[in-house]
Amino acid sequence: MIVVTEDHEKQDSYSGPTIRLPERVARRRRSLSPLPDYEASQAQYRRDSVLDEKDTKAWHQTKLWRAVLFLLLTYALLTTVIGVPIIVKKMKGGSGPPPWNEADFFANQPQFSSGSMINYEGNHPCNVWSSVDYVHSTRPYSATLQVLIPAIGNVSIRSNATLENTLPSNVIGTFTAEYDSDITDNNVHMSVTLQTTSKALRDSTLICYDDIGADRGLMIFIPRYFENMDSISLDIHVAFPPLTASHRISNFNVYLPVFNQVFKDLSQIDFQNVYIEGTSRPINVTNIQAPCISVKSMLGDICGTYNASKSLILDTIRGTINASITLVKASDHSPPTQLTLDTGDRDINAQITLVSPGKLSNSPQFAGKVNNFNAEVNIAISSDPSTPPVPMYFTVLNNLAKTKVVMDQKFEGTFLTQTKLSTVSVEEGSENHKYDNLFGSDRPRVVVFDQPVSDSRASGWVGWGKKPNQVMDQSHVEVISSLGPVELNFGPT
Length: 493
What we know:
It is built from three helices and 26 strands. It has about 500 residues and is mainly beta. It has a domain at about 125-285. It is flat.
């Protein structure tokens, strides 16, 4: 054994880098067969498997899209065949009015006007007198005008007179409108008789007319300034002919301050809208009917018989309201038929009859608001014998005087009576027991009070049988005063 010492240097024959050759690998003997070897066969198999998988997935996706397309076409077909007729049917016959809101309803009441402010523009014929005369009287200078206005569209009789520029003592005016069955043409016959204290005043008073324009009728221009002893007397007469179905008065406008206005029985005239305004003189209506009626004054009384199917307004400030009123509700597509009675220093006396074919919706079919301040209110509300119980909403407000409201035996719903410094009284009519079988049942009529009940406030429910849990589709009446007593009576009116 040779042992190399530490101080012995190793001596190699070559000190440069060396290269190690790779080990010999056994080589496979090449086959002479035309078939692919194992590796090629596996690669071919994997490639074919991937292609088959892609083809299968594509086939499934195509089938899925076909199914989706079929479902969409089926849905569209069913919507067209079934859905569209249902929607059309609801739009035509099943769509009722929007939900009724009491605050919004009274806040958005329409404001009607008869076109009070008129100005002379010189573009209409004026003072085309049929006769001019001088008679021995207080007003000796007279003239007469007659004009025919087609009985279709708008018919107006207006004046520029107001309380600001014309004192009632200077102008004495009378207006009369009536139905005349003896008229054989389709024209409204108008006549004006003018009497003045001087010829100059007669000539300066203009009686104009328009028989072809959109606002057909009379326009009366009274001078703004009078001599101390001057005065005018005007007598206006309007006669409506018998009208066929093709003739309808769209708007009947009357604005005649300081005129006594008399409307005789006009119930046979087909009016769409009637607007009547005055100031200091009475307005008397024998009978008039239209979907919308508005009668307004300042100091004059309002009296008469009115029939409205959409809106009725009787409004004065210091005049009495005495009215017999019929409210009609014929369509469930329209808002409630509304009533407004308003004055401040005179009594309100109204007999109100409600006419409806039946309960058309859960919303009130009639809605009314009555306002007064320093005079009594007496209201009686009843349903026509042909009208079943229908929802209604009425509010009666007063301040200093007595308020009495009577609801007939068909009223069913909630009530509220309230005053601040007086007393309230809620009574059931003494004859209500006669109507216990009114609706084909033996349910008795009862009044159920909410608790607590005090001398100044009472609320509750009145109806037939047991009070329902939900009273949203029933009627409601409120009678509220500040200092005056309140009386609410349920019974025959």
